[in-house]
Amino acid sequence: MCTLSKGAVIMMSERVGTILRSMWRRITQKLVNKLILLFTSVIILVVGSLTIISYQMIEKESVNHSIASTTNNLLLVNQNLEDYLEGMQQLALPQLRYNDIMNAIANENRDYASRMVIENYLRSMFYSRNDLEAIYLYVADRHQYYVVTRETYNITVRKGINTDIPKLPWYKEAMASTTNESFQSFVGSRSDMGYVAPKASFMAYHRVLRSIASRHPQAVLSFYYNTSAVDEIMQNIPLGKGDQLMLMSPKGVPFYVNSFPLYERMRDSGVLAQIGKGGSGRVTWSDSSGNQEYLVVYDAGEKDGWQLIKPIPYRQIYEAATTTRNWSYAIGALFLGVSIILVTLTSNAITRPLHKLSTQMKRFSTGDFGATAPVKGHDEIAYLSLHFNEMVQRTEELINERYRMKLVEKNAILKALEAEINPHFLYNALQAISTQALKREMFDMADMVDALAQTLRYSINGKDIVVAREELKHIERYIGLQKARFGARLRVEVVWEETLMELPVPRLSVQTLVENAIKHALEKVSSDILIVISAESSSTNATIAVRDNGPGISEDKLRMVLDSFHEKWEERESEHIGLKNLNTRLKLLYGDQAGLFILTDETGTEMRMQIPRGGSSHV
C-alpha cells in the first residue's frame, strides 16, 4: 500500500513537472511573451523590494517614534504625579498647628473644645481639595475615629469606634514605616479597607501622627482620594486602541490600571520585575494568552520611585507601517497591471513587425520573390525590413541574371557544337592544300598554308592557360602570315627573358595585343611599323607589353575603349570586342588586380597586360 502510494506521488510529480515545462515552453516560445515576462519580473522585483524596504524602515521608525514619544510623556506625567503625591504628604502634616492638634487628640474624649478643634481641622483639609472623598482620623489608644465626608450637599463630621483597624496591613505598614506613612491601593480587592470608603476612591494615603516628645503614635490620618485629579494628569498620556496604562508604587503595588487581567498576566510572567527602580526604559513582552507582543515602556520617578508603565501592542505600532505596506501592495498591483498593459502594447509594437518580417522570410525561403516586409518608422526593425526588401530584390535580379547566363551558355554550347565540325574540316582542308603545294614544289605557299593550319589548330585547342613559349611560337606563325600581307613594312622585335619563357599566360592574349597594334597602327599608315613584344616580372606582378610606333589613339577613341571595359557583357560592342574580352578574361582568371592598361601618345601606343603572381588561381 505504501509502495503504491509512493509510486502515485512520483507519477503525479512527474506529470506536474511535465505540465509546467510544457507551459513554460509555450510561454517562452514567443518573443512578446519573453518581453512581457522579463519586464513584469523586473517590475515585481522593484516594487516588491521597495515595498519591503519601506515597510522595514517605517516599522523601525514607528518603534523608535513610539518609544521616544511615550518615554517623554511618561516622564512629564510622572513628574506631575510626584508633585501630586507630595501635595498629599504636605496636606497630612499639621505643620504650624501640630502641637494644638496633638493636644486636641489627647483630650478629645473629655474636652468638647478639643473635639471641635479636630472637626474644624478635618473640615479645613477636606475643603482644601476637590479630589478628596473622605478623611479619617483614627485615635490609636482609644480605637475611636472621626470621619468627614460629603453627604448629599453637606459636609458632615461623624465619630465612631473600630477595633479592627490595628489589624489591617496598611495600618501596620504605616506604623512600621520610617516615614510614618503608607499608600493603600484599591485596585482589585477592597476587603482590607477598614473604613467604609466611597466606591469612587482609587487610593488612600495614611499618615501616623506621633508625639514629638515620646514619639508615641497618637493618631492616624487617612485620606481617600477619587480619580478626578489623577485622570486629569493621565490625560497627558495619549492612549490608542489596545494601549494600557499602569501606575505602580515603589513596592510594585498597582494603583491605577486600565485592564486588571492584563496586569495579572504581566505580573505572573515576571516582566514587571524587570522594570527598573529609577529612570526610564523599555522591555518586550509576549502575551501568550492573547497571542500578542507588547512594547512595555516605563518611567520610574527619581524622588519616590513611582512607576508609570505603558504596554503598547506591536500590532498597533506597526499599524501605520502595515497600512503603508498594504497601500504599497495595492498601488504596486495597480502599477503592475498598467505596466503589463503598456509592456504588452510596446512588446507587440516591437514584435509585430518582426513577425511580419519572419512571415515574409518564410515566403522568401519557399522561392516567392514577391515577399516584401512593410517598412514603418526609422528604427532598427525598419532598417532590417528595408534591407530585407533590398536583399529579396537583389536576389531576384541575381537569379534572373544567372538564368540569362545559363541561356547564353546553352546557346554558346549549341553554337560551339554546330561550329565544331567547321574548324576541323578547315584544318584538314589546309593540310591537303599544303600537301599539294609541296608536290608542286610551291614551298612558300606550303609554309603559309602550314602556318595557317597550325594557327587554327592552336586557336581551337581548348586550353585557357598556356606557357609563354607556346604563345610566342604562335605569335611567330601569326606574324609570318601578316608579313605575307604587309611585307617589309611590318617589323617585330621580341624582348623576352629566358627565365620568363615558362610564364603561364592566357591563350591568344599576346596575339590580341599584336593584332590590335597591326589594326590601329600598321593599317592606319603607309610607313614601316615596329612592334616590340616584351615581358618583365616583379615579386607581385608579371607585365607583358606590346608597343608600336604608330600614330597613337585619339583621346575620344581611348575613352571609348576604356569605357567598354566597364560595360555589362550584354552591352559589348563588336569594334572593341577583342580588348574587352581580354580584359574580362584577365579579371575572371586572376581577380581584380589583373587587367589591361593602355598608354598612348603621338609617338605610339603601348598596351600592358598585368598578371598577379601568387594565389591558387594566379600565376
UniProtKB/TrEMBL annotation:
<feature type="domain" description="HAMP">
    <location>
        <begin position="348"/>
        <end position="400"/>
    </location>
</feature>
<dbReference type="InterPro" id="IPR010559">
    <property type="entry name" value="Sig_transdc_His_kin_internal"/>
</dbReference>
<keyword id="KW-1003">Cell membrane</keyword>
<keyword id="KW-0597">Phosphoprotein</keyword>
<dbReference type="Pfam" id="PF00672">
    <property type="entry name" value="HAMP"/>
</dbReference>
<dbReference type="Pfam" id="PF02518">
    <property type="entry name" value="HATPase_c"/>
</dbReference>
<dbReference type="InterPro" id="IPR003594">
    <property type="entry name" value="HATPase_dom"/>
</dbReference>
<dbReference type="InterPro" id="IPR050640">
    <property type="entry name" value="Bact_2-comp_sensor_kinase"/>
</dbReference>
<feature type="transmembrane region" description="Helical">
    <location>
        <begin position="35"/>
        <end position="58"/>
    </location>
</feature>
<protein>
    <submittedName>
        <fullName>Two-component sensor histidine kinase</fullName>
    </submittedName>
</protein>
<keyword id="KW-0472">Membrane</keyword>
<keyword id="KW-0812">Transmembrane</keyword>
<dbReference type="GO" id="GO:0016301">
    <property type="term" value="F:kinase activity"/>
</dbReference>
<keyword id="KW-0418">Kinase</keyword>
<dbReference type="InterPro" id="IPR036890">
    <property type="entry name" value="HATPase_C_sf"/>
</dbReference>
<dbReference type="InterPro" id="IPR003660">
    <property type="entry name" value="HAMP_dom"/>
</dbReference>
<keyword id="KW-1133">Transmembrane helix</keyword>
<keyword id="KW-0808">Transferase</keyword>
<dbReference type="Pfam" id="PF06580">
    <property type="entry name" value="His_kinase"/>
</dbReference>
